[in-house]
TrEMBL record:
An example Gene Ontology molecular-function term: diguanylate cyclase activity
UniProt GO BP: cell adhesion involved in single-species biofilm formation; negative regulation of bacterial-type flagellum-dependent cell motility; phosphorelay signal transduction system
Record's keyword terms, sorted: Nucleotidyltransferase, Phosphoprotein, Transferase
Xref: Pfam families: GGDEF, Response_reg
Signal peptide bounds: none
Protein name, as recorded: diguanylate cyclase
C-alpha cells in the first residue's frame, strides 16, 4: 500500500530522519523546508499524506494546514502535525484547522508507521469513491439535479449525528460528553453492557463509537473493534480508541485493527471534541460520496426522462437472461415497440408535449407488465419489453393488451389537448438455442417495421410478417 508522503519541516535533520524511516517502509518521500514550498509541492504533486511541522519559518504549520483544507485541490490530503511540544491548546488548534493527527517529537517509529498506514487506507477509499463519482459525472449521469459532494470535510454538519460510547465503567462520568453535546450537537449514548452495544450496532449503527482500551471492566476493546470492523453494519462507523498515556504499542495496534483515531488519557475535553468532530465529518462525507456513487450507477442505467431502464442496461440484462434461458432451457420473448407518427407530435405540439407522451407511454407500459419483465427505452420513441419464461401466445395477448392500453385512452397534453396515440409492436421468441441476444432484438425490430408497413397500430410476430 505504500504511497507518496510530503514532509514539511525547516530543520534538515528532522527531514532526513523522518524520510529515512518512511523510505525504509517503501514510501516515496518528498520534502519541503517552508510553507510556501510545501504548498507548491502539495498542489502540484498531490501526495497521499503530509507530515507538517507546527513551526515553519514563513508561516505557522497550523495556518498552512488550514490553507490546505480550504484549497479544493488539497482538501482531501490527510495532514499530520508534528511538534516538539505537546500543549493541549496547540493540539486543539491543529485539529480545528483540519489536521488528522498530532504527533510528538522524537517520533516513535511504530506509532508513526501505524498512523501513516491508517490514513493511507482512508485516503485510498476516499480517492476510489471520488474517481467513481467523477466517472459517473463524466458519463453525464449527474445531468439530473443530483447534489454531488464538494471537496473537503469542513462543510459537513455533525449536529444530530449519533455517537455510542463503550466505556471502561458505565457509571463513570466522562467530562468530554457534555462539551461534545453542547458544542457539536451530537446525540451521545453510553453503552451499559456489551450486549446492548452489539444490539444497537446490529439494529441502527451509530456514526461513531468511542471505545475504551478495556471495556466494561476487563473486556478487550481491541477485540471489540476488530469485531465491529468485521460486521457489515458497523464497517462504516468511525471508531475512536481511548487508552492510557504513552501506550504507543496499543495505539499502533488499535489503528491496524481498525480504529480511525486514538486519544491518550489524560486529555483535554476540547481535544476529544475536535477529534470526534473530524471523525464524524469524515464518516458523513464518506456516506454522501458512497450515496453519490450509488446514485450515479443507478442513473447510468436509467433513462432520465421516462424512468425506465436504458439501452445500456437492456443489452447487459438481455445477455444475462439469454444465458439463463440457455442454461435452464427456458424461452425468452422480446417485444420492440415504436409510437406511430411520433415526429408529428413534436412538430405540431412541441418537444415538451412529446416528452409528456413518452413519459405517459412508459407509465402505461410498466403498469401492464409483470415484475419479472424488463422495460427499457432503446432511444427516441422506441421501447423494448423482455419477457422471460413466457409462452408465445401469452406474450402476444400481453402485446395486444398493451397496444389497447395506448390507443384506447387519449394522452392529455400540457395545453389540455386530448391526443390519440397508437403503437406498433414487433414480437420475437428465442428458446435459448436458436437466436443470440442481438439476433433476437433484430428479429423483433424487423417484425416491428413489418407492423408499420402493414398499417401501424398492430402486433406482428417475427417470421409471420
Amino acid at each position: 500500500m505504500p504511497g507518496r508522503i510530503l514532509i514539511v519541516d525547516d530543520v534538515a535533520t528532522n527531514r532526513f530522519l523522518i524520510k529515512a524511516k518512511l523510505t525504509a517502509a517503501y514510501y516515496e518521500v518528498m520534502v519541503a523546508s517552508n510553507g510556501v514550498q510545501g504548498m507548491t509541492i502539495a498542489r502540484g504533486a498531490q501526495p497521499d499524506l503530509i507530515l507538517l511541522d507546527v513551526n515553519l519559518p514563513d508561516m505557522s504549520g497550523i495556518d498552512m494546514c488550514a490553507k490546505l483544507k480550504r484549497d479544493p485541490v488539497t482538501a482531501d490530503i490527510p495532514v499530520v502535525m508534528i511538534t516538539a511540544g505537546g500543549a493541549a491548546e496547540t493540539r486543539v488548534q491543529a485539529l480545528d484547522a483540519g489536521a488528522d493527527d498530532f504527533l510528538l517529537k522524537p517520533l516513535d517509529e511504530v506509532t508513526l508507521l501505524a498512523r501513516v498506514r491508517s490514513l493511507m487506507r482512508m485516503k485510498l477509499v476516499i480517492d476510489e469513491l471520488r474517481v467513481r463519482d467523477e466517472s459517473g459525472a463524466a458519463l453525464e449521469v449527474s445531468s439530473m439535479e443530483q447534489e454531488r459532494p464538494s471537496r473537503g470535510l469542513t462543510a459537513e454538519r455533525v449536529a444530530g449525528r449519533r455517537v455510542m460510547v463503550v466505556p471502561h465503567d458505565p457509571s463513570e462520568a466522562l467530562e468530554w460528553i457534555p462539551a461534545a453535546r453542547e458544542r457539536l450537537g451530537l446525540v451521545i449514548e453510553v453503552g451499559q453492557s456489551m450486549s446492548m452495544v452489539l444490539n444497537t450496532v446490529a439494529i441502527n449503527p451509530p456514526d461513531a463509537l468511542v471505545v475504551h482500551r478495556e471495556v466494561f471492566g476487563s473486556e478487550d476493546g481491541l477485540r471489540l473493534i476488530a469485531k465491529l470492523r468485521a460486521d457489515r453494519n458497523a464497517r462504516g462507523s468511525a471508531i475512536l480508541l481511548t487508552l492510557a498515556a504513552d501506550d504507543v504499542q496499543t495505539a499502533a495496534l488499535g489503528l491496524d485493527v481498525g480504529a480511525n483515531d486514538y486519544i491518550q488519557a489524560p486529555f483535554d475535553p476540547m481535544e476529544m471534541v475536535a477529534r470526534l468532530r473530524l471523525q464524524v465529518r469524515r464518516k458523513v462525507f464518506s456516506d454522501r460520496l458512497r450515496s453519490s456513487v450509488r446514485d450515479g450507477l443507478r442513473l447510468a442505467v436509467i433513462d432520465p426522462l421516462t424512468g425506465v431502464h436504458n439501452r445500456r442496461y437492456l443489452r447487459n440484462h438481455l445477455n444475462t437472461m439469454f444465458q439463463d434461458g440457455r442454461h435452464h432451457g427456458g424461452n425468452l420473448i422480446v417485444l420492440v415497440m415504436d409510437l406511430d407518427r411520433f415526429k408529428m407530435v413534436n412538430d405540431r405540439f412541441g418537444h415538451g408535449a412529446g416528452d409528456k407522451v413518452l413519459c405517459e407511454f412508459a407509465n402505461r407500459l410498466t403498469d401492464n407488465v409483470r415484475g419479472v419483465d424488463l422495460v427499457a427505452r432503446i432511444g427516441g420513441e422506441e421501447f423494448c419489453l423482455v419477457m422471460p419464461d413466457t409462452g408465445l401466445k401469452t406474450a402476444i395477448r400481453a402485446a395486444e393488451r398493451m397496444r389497447r392500453a395506448i390507443c384506447d385512452q387519449p394522452f392529455l397534453l400540457p395545453d389540455g389537448t386530448d391526443l390519440k396515440v397508437t403503437v406498433s409492436i414487433g414480437v420475437a421468441e428465442s428458446t435459448g438455442k436458436e437466436l443470440d441476444p442481438e439476433e433476437l432484438l433484430d428479429a423483433a425490430d424487423r417484425a416491428l417495421y413489418a407492423a408499420k408497413n402493414a398499417g401501424r397500430n398492430r402486433v406482428t410476430l417475427a417470421g409471420a410478417a
